[in-house]
Known about the structure:
alpha+beta
Amino acid sequence: xxxxxxxxxxxxxxxxxxxxxxxxxxxxxxxxxxxxxxxxxxxxxxxxxxxxxxxxxxxxxxxxxxxxxxxxxxxxxxxxxxxxxxxxxxxxxxxxxxxxxxxxxxxxxxxxxxxxxxxxxxxxxxxxxxxxxxxxxxxxxxxxxxxxxxxxxxxxxxxxxxxxxxxxxxxxxxxxxxxxx
Length: 181
């Protein structure tokens, strides 16, 4: 009888330790901060160098310092020749999706299914923002870095909606969001 009681206590302790964690079940990686070409499965993601990105996207047209537009509604922003932001617009539908399967034209619930429920609450239903500190390995309630280094460690995924459907999907780091660099 004591043996069963001890096993029951051990089971309770083990299961209790598994369920009480504040750690998110989902994590963002650099590859999660990216897009996939639907015709061939090739990816472009955060941190990738420009030469590798352009093997997938083709040659871009620079329209601002470090900002290149590509065919099919994709824009990429480079810092030190590395991808730091990717924007998908309406023309990308049918050509690209995110590495988690989100694409232009999806409803907000479809985006949440792919990225989870740990987003920043918005006053309107037309923006859905996720902030993830990849150094700390956790989602943040808001984007409030105190230093440039902290800002470079925060991934942002933002979905913008028009009439209930995603019309812009954007990956960037917090430093680029605040400085444009």
